[in-house]
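BUG-269 | component: ligand-complex export | severity: low

The export step for manganese (II) ion jobs runs without errors, but we want the raw record kept on the ticket for reference. Input record follows.
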Amino acid sequence: MSTEPISLLGIPLDANSSFMFGCAGGPAAIRAALHSTSGNDATEASVNVTPQLDDLGDLGITNEPGSRGDADVITTAVRAQVAAGRQIISLGGDHSVTFPILRAIGEVHDDLTVVHIDAHPDIYDDLDGNPLSHASPFARALEAGCMTTLVQLGIRTATRHQVEQGERWDVTMVSPRQLASFDPSALTGPIYLSIDLDGLDPSCAPGVSHHEPGGLTVREVLDVIDSLPGPLVGADVVELNPTRDVVDMTAMVAAKLVKEIAGAMLARR
Ligand code: MN
Ligand code: MN
């Protein structure tokens, strides 16, 4: 079993957002919540995870819209961690970061399952002429063959176009209403987990650019994380927009998810 720490990588990128900016401040806000002395390092399973996180800091990127150079910087950074045998948790940034991350993860796993929690499917073929938009990362990743299975949880605003895209790529979309009858433990690994915080209900995660009522509870997301069969090779927590947050509550939710993801990574290597 690997004794490597888990790599934590900040990606302060919000130029590929379609509605408003602010997610570039996400990594700093999540770190502040993660290290807040209001809590301690223990997960719900009483594992002290934060000492096992190796924080690599934030990536140096230009944060220009549609930047292929920035995407390459992300892929290269993740590829280095994978090559070192590390599991990696990335902190967004808008959701555009997930395609370049998955390029690197998909290179070494030919049977990757991606579990994606979000209000939105993010599989637009094209939105506003930016192929790297945060509305399209899973379209790009599917086209590139980064995964064999994509399961999306919490989806509650798929347009007709996105439903057709999902059918085209054989994507499983699970709405909040359907979540109780979905069994994450039946998934096969290796697994990559991508959490867009707007998948949660805005009442518990208001610090996002796109409020979509009727979302998941923190407990439902924690239960999904706990139910994933291993190994969990990588994860991201994205779309925290601190300019929209209320008393840092969404940052604290994001930090809690990071801790529990790390716990799941360590428990099922
Ligand atoms: Mn979303
Ligand atoms: Mn998203």
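Assignee comment: Attached the raw record above. The pocket of manganese (II) ion (ligand 2) is lined by residues 95, 118, 120, 122, 196, 239 (CB under 6 Å).
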